[in-house]
Design brief:
With 60 residues, this protein is an alpha+beta fold. It has a domain of 38 residues. It is 20% helix and 22% strand. The longest helix is centred in the C-terminal third of the chain and has 12 residues. The N and C termini lie far apart (33 Å).
Length: 60
């Protein structure tokens, strides 16, 4: 499994990483705690989240 983080994440270490999992699922973890818990999302959940980000749904 290959974990990736955004090229915009900078060097302060406050990042999340994502990885493609079996069955199209997506894993998300804290880059500071690589052995810690992983949140797992279905393809539909991940697509809805990404669409919300692109649409500005989470902007403050």
């Amino acid at each position: 499994m290959i974990w990736k983080k955004s090229v915009r994440s900078g060097t302060n270490g406050n990042c999340v990483e994502v990885a493609a999992l079996n069955g199209g699922h997506v894993g998300v973890r804290d880059s500071k705690d690589r052995s810690g818990p992983v949140l797992t999302f279905t393809p539909g959940e991940w697509s809805a989240f990404v669409a919300g980000v692109r649409d500005g749904e989470f902007d403050l």
